[in-house]
Design brief:
The protein has 266 residues and is of the alpha/beta class. It starts with a helix and ends with a helix. It is 38% helix and 15% strand. Helix 10 links the parallel strand 8 and strand 9.
Length: 266
């Protein structure tokens, strides 16, 4: 950090013509962001409404701790870590007083101020419970099969981190299309609906033809043979005839949750 004395010296150099205003600005920027091993984006919350999320895959405990600590020391009250390896979680528990871990979704939420909250509500065939504001901001998360639940949990924990209520509806794939019907009225109350499916991915188009809200289709790698690790699902969802369906990457539960959260809070 630049001391007050150093700043005065630089101003004197500007007045004496030894330093240009551009050079002064460069020095100030360098002083505010000194070189370091990790470069957390501490200003993202101001620019993008929500702060930086840590992609935990292949990161060490030291890296996650360093980045999360820097973000919590800036303006973020809670940090979300996605795709974190289970063996790292217990080590991070010792460094942060308030932690919420979702073992299925492989997400970790860290805070130094309060326990991370769960904003999800129970799925019922009846209308969504809660006040009108909750219904307006509600995001539906629908899975075709139980094997898609891990990706769905990543979406839900992302929404929880964004303080956006969600409702989870599972195992309602097109092999038994009648199963989704009791929940349609509830989904119509949602600001956005995330549809998580593998195999041929047809559920996203089905929901998109029944619900007026934006549909965020999340293809999963669930399948075998001609599914090609989710490529078939991805191409099917991208080719959806339902106009309200937008598709994200394979197994991208975080991206689906984040986009739906932006829609709900927009």
């Amino acid at each position: 950090m630049t001391t007050e004395q150093e700043f005065k010296i630089w101003l004197d150099e500007v007045q004496a013509g030894k330093l240009s205003w551009v050079q002064l600005a460069e020095r100030l920027l360098a002083a505010c962001h000194p070189p370091r091993q990790h470069q957390p984006d501490e200003d993202r919350g101001r620019r993008c409404r929500f702060g930086e999320v840590i992609f935990g895959q292949n990161k060490t405990v030291e890296a996650i701790h360093s980045i999360a600590h820097a973000l919590l020391r800036s303006s973020q009250t809670e940090v979300l870590v996605t795709r974190i390896e289970p063996q790292l979680v217990s080590q991070l528990f010792r460094h942060f007083p308030y932690v919420r871990y979702d073992c299925l979704g492989k997400t970790l939420r860290l805070s130094e101020q309060q326990w991370p909250q769960d904003f999800s509500i129970k799925a019922t065939p009846e209308d969504a419970q809660g006040n009108e504001e909750q219904k307006v901001r509600l995001v539906g998360v629908v899975t075709a099969g139980s094997t898609d639940l891990a990706v769905a949990r990543e979406s839900i924990e992302t929404l929880n981190w964004m303080h956006v209520p969600s409702v989870l509806i599972t195992d309602v794939g097109v092999a038994g299309p009648y199963r989704i019907l009791p929940y349609i009225e509830q989904l119509r109350k949602c600001s956005a609906v995330i549809v998580v499916a593998g195999m041929e991915g047809a559920l996203a188009s089905v929901v998109g033809g029944l619900v007026p809200s934006p549909i965020i289709a999340v293809p999963t790698s669930v399948g075998y043979g001609a599914n090609f690790g989710g490529i078939t699902t991805l191409l099917s969802m991208l080719s959806s005839c339902a106009a309200g369906v937008t598709t994200v990457n394979i197994d991208a539960g975080f991206k689906g949750g984040y986009v739906a959260g932006l829609i709900a809070t927009g």
